[in-house]
Specification:
With 210 residues, the protein is an all-alpha fold. The chain contains nine helices and no strands. The radius of gyration is 24 Å and the shape is elongated. It starts with 9 loop residues before the first helix and ends with a helix. 32% of the residues are buried.
Length: 210
């Protein structure tokens, strides 16, 4: 008796599916390693910024971009994996490092196309850079240097004001609303710290002049 259902096509279909899955898994593993490296390089670059090691910070940011590009290339044929989340996180950290370096050095805020970053990663990256700028301001205040603090605070303010009007679902923006809310607290606290420090500085100068 002949079988009612012909499954002979599975003999060629399954190996083809397995080959595709093997390619996808290899791309995923390579991209995961690259993304972890991007995050690590970006973190080290930010530490170099805080130490004012500009050349080292720029070198690390450039390396992070190169590794990020390799991850993007590996995932290009696999959009289902590309948008799984780990590439977004790596891009966000790379943007944060790039933006922090640029603003602390007094350079213009890099645009998304300059960084070749997707919108959600870019927006979250510049939002998180607000926290790093606060650290820079506090370091300057501890050294008694006030000249750059106001311009950095203004940059923080500009970023926050640009982000707070963005009102789209979290699935589209990578939970930007939550990051923006956190940035508001950081901004207001920094404004208060800087105002108090400047008032104390002026009072000291006035007393010294008497």
């Amino acid at each position: 008796m002949e079988p009612l259902t012909d499954t002979t096509s599975l003999e060629t279909t399954i190996p083809r599916i397995l080959a595709d899955l093997a390619d996808k898994n290899a791309a995923r593993e390579a991209a995961l390693v690259a993304c972890r490296r991007v995050i690590r390089l970006s973190a080290v670059a930010i530490r170099a910024v805080h130490r004012e090691e500009w050349d080292e910070a720029a070198r690390l940011v450039a390396e992070a971009r190169s590794v990020r590009d390799a991850a993007v290339e590996a995932l290009e044929p696999h959009p289902d994996i590309r948008y799984a989340g780990f590439l977004h996180d790596a891009q966000k950290e790379y943007v944060e490092a790039s933006v922090t370096l640029a603003l602390v050095r007094g350079e213009p805020l890099p645009a998304p196309d300059e960084l070749d970053a997707e919108a959600a990663a870019y927006l979250n990256g510049i939002a998180e850079a607000i926290g790093e700028l606060r650290r820079v301001i506090l370091d300057l205040l501890r050294r008694g240097s006030f000249t750059r603090c106001e311009s950095l605070l203004a940059a923080m303010d500009d970023i926050y004001n640009a982000l707070v009007v963005i009102d789209y679902p979290d699935a589209m923006t990578g939970n930007l609303r939550r990051t923006t809310d956190q940035s508001r607290g950081i901004l207001e606290k920094t404004r208060g710290d800087l105002t108090m420090a400047m008032l104390q500085h002026r009072m000291t100068e006035t007393l010294d002049a008497r």
